[in-house]
Amino acid sequence: MINVEGRQEWNCEGLPMHLRCFVLAASALTWVTATARADQYLAGVGRADITPRKPIWMAGYASRQRPSEGVDHPLQAKALALRDMQGHTTLLWLCADIIGFPREVSDRIAQRIGEELRVPRECIVFAASHTHTGPVIAGNLIGMFDLRGQELATVEEYTRYLEEQCFRAARQACSELVEVTLAYHRGEAGFAMNRRVFSAAGTQFGENPFGPVDHEVPVLRATKKDGQPLALLFGYACHCTTLGGNYYRISGDWAGFAQDFVERAFPGCTALFVTGCGADANPAPRGTLDLARQHGLELAGAVSKACRTPGIVVAGPLRALYAHVDLPLTRLPTRAELEERRKHKDVFQRRFAERMLAHLDREGKLPTSYPCPVQIWKLGDRLTFIALGGEVVVDYALRLKREYAGHTLWVAGYCNDVFAYVPSARILIEGGYEADYNLVYYGLPGRFTGETEQILVSKIRDMLGSLK
C-alpha cells in the first residue's frame, strides 16, 4: 500500500470514494502494454529543487501585501528528454512549478541548452504550472508589484537561481538516456470549473457550471525495458488557484500535489505536469490546502486510470517547429489619455500609465502587436503536441480538437512566454478580466483585436500542414 500521508499528515478520510479507490488500487496497478510493436526511443529525466531559499514576494495575486512566510510544499523543475533513435532528434520538456516563464528567461535558458547540450530552440518547450503560490519571476506580471531595493534584488536573484536549476535538470535528462517505448493515454478529471459569470455589473469571477471547460487529462508514458515507467508527462486545463491571495506560504498547489501522488504510487517514475488551455477555469471548490491536495489526488487518480487502458502506441520519427505570430493590439492609449490615467484612483492603472509613458519617451511609440510563440511537435505519426504562449483560454483547445477530430492532439498553454491572456473571439465580445484588465498587470498597451483567434489558429494550421 502506498503511503498517502503528506507532509502535513494528509489522509484520505472524507475524500470521495473514487479518490479513495485510487489510493487503494495504485500499489496494485498493472501497466497495460500495447500489443503492437512500438519503436524504441531514448529518454532521460532530470529534476532540480527551485524552492525559494528565503522570503520572497509571491506571484499571481495583486492583493498580497508582503513576502512569503514559509513553505508548505517544495517547488521543482523537471526535465524529460526524448530522442528518436533513427533521426537523432531530441525533444526536451522543461516543466516548472512557477507562475510562468517570461520570454527573456526562457530565451536565456534555451540559448545555454543549445550551446552546451546541442538541443535547438524548436526542440525545447518551457511549461509552467502557473501556481499562484510560487515566487515572482523577474519580467512576469510587471505591473502587479512595485518592488524596489532588496525586495527587487531578491526576485532577480531567485530568477537567476531558477535559470541555473532548470539548466541542471535539462543537463541531467540529456545525459542519462535509456531505451523506452512510448504510449499516449487519455483520462478525465472533474474539478475544473469555468470562472466567468455574467451580471448587470459585467463579466466577473465566480463559478459557471454551464461555461466551456476541458476536463481531458492527456498522458504520455515512457516505459523502460523492464516494464516500469520512467516518466509520466500529464496535463490539465485549469488555473492553479486553489489557494487565494490571503495565502502566504510557498506551494505547487494541486499540480504540485498531483505530481507527488503519481510518484509515490509508482516509485522510480518522474511525473511532469503541463498546463492546458485553462485560463478561464478555476478549481472548484477552492480556498484551503486540503482542497489543493484533494484536487491533486483526483488528478493523480485520473492519470493512473488512464494508464490502465491500452492507449495509443507512439512510433516513428520526432519532428519540431517553433515560430512566432504577431497578435495585433488595438485601442492604444494616447499620451493625453495616459497622462489622465496617472491620476487614477487605482494604483495599478497609475503604474501602467507611468510605464507606458516611459516607453513612449524611450521609443517614440507604443507596440502595436505581440509576438506569440507557437511550437508544434510531431511524435511519430499519431500524436501532435501543440505548445502555445500566454494564458490561453479553453476555446482554442476545444476548437483545435474539434477541427482535427481525426488526429490525436495535445494542446498546452502557458508555454515558453507567459506574456498576457490570449482571448478568443468569444472572450473579446464578452469582455472581462481575460480580455482587458489583465493587460494592466502584464504591461501591454492595448487589448488584442477581434481577429486574434483566427490569426493564431491559422498559424497553427500552417505549421501543422508543413509537418505532414
Please give a structural write-up.
With 468 residues, the chain is of the alpha+beta class. The protein has a domain of 278 residues. The chain is 31% helix and 26% strand. The strands form 5 sheets. Strands 1, 2, 3, 4, 5, 9, 10, 11 and 13 form a 9-stranded mixed sheet that branches. The chain has a 5-stranded mixed sheet with strand order 18-16-15-14-20, with helices on both faces. Helix 4 crosses helix 5 and helix 6 runs antiparallel to helix 7. The longest helix is centred in the middle third of the chain and has 27 residues. It is globular.
**pLDDT under 50 segments (min length 5)?**
1-14, 23-37
Instruction: Please tell me how large the radius of gyration is.
Output: 21 Å
Find the count of extended strands (DSSP E, 2+ residues). 20
Helix content: 25-40%
Instruction: Name the overall outline.
Output: globular
Question: Biggest sheet, open or closed, and with what strands and sense?
Answer: 9 strands, mixed
Count of DSSP H/I helices: 11
Mean pLDDT: 92
* Alpha-carbon distance between the two ends: 46 Å
The SS-based structural class is alpha+beta
The proportion of strand residues reads 25-35%
Write a short abstract of this structure.
By secondary structure, this protein is an alpha+beta fold. Helix content is 31%, strand content 26%.
Question: Key features?
Answer:
alpha+beta; 26% strand; disordered N terminus; 11 helices
How is the topology of this model organized?
Layout (H helix, E strand, L loop, with lengths): L16 H10 L14 E9 L26 E9 L5 E7 L6 H15 L6 E5 L20 H27 L2 E11 L3 E3 L1 E4 L2 E4 L10 E9 L4 E8 L16 H13 L4 E6 L5 E3 L5 H18 L5 E3 L3 E13 L4 H7 L5 H17 L5 E11 L3 E6 L2 E2 L1 H10 L4 E5 L8 E2 L2 H6 L7 H5 L4 E2 L3 H15 L2
Parallel strand pairs: 3-4, 10-11, 16-18, 17-19
Antiparallel strand pairs: 1-2, 1-5, 2-3, 5-9, 5-13, 6-12, 7-8, 9-10, 14-15, 14-20, 15-16
Helix pairs in contact: 1-5, 2-3, 4-5, 6-7
